[in-house]
Amino acid sequence: MIESRVADGGAPAVVFDHVSKAFGAKQVLRDVSFDVRAGEALCILGRSGTGKSVTLKLIVSLIKPDQGKIWIEQDEITHLNESELSRVRRKMGFLFQDAALFDSLTLYDNLALPLARLTDKSPQEIDFVIDRVLGEVGLASDKAKTPSELSGGMRKRAGLARALVLEPKILLADEPSSGLDRITASEIDELLLRQKTEHKTALIVVTHDVRGARRLADRIVVLDKGNLLAEGTFAEIEHSESAIARQLVTE
Amino acid sequence: MFETAGEVSVFGFQAVTDLFRLPFEGQQIRQQLAEIGSKSLPLVVASGFALGAVLTLHTRSTLVTFGATAWIPTVQALAFFLEIGPLVTGLLVAGRVGSGIGAVLSNMRATEQIDAIESLSIDSFKFLVVPRIVACTIALPILTLFLDFAGLLGGFASEYAATRTSFQLYITQSFESFEWSNFYAPTLKTAVFGFIIGTVSSFLGYTTNEGAAGVGRAATRSVVASSLLIILIDVILIKFIFFIFPESAL
Question: What is the CATH number of the domain that holds A78?
Answer without folding.
Answer: 3.40.50.300
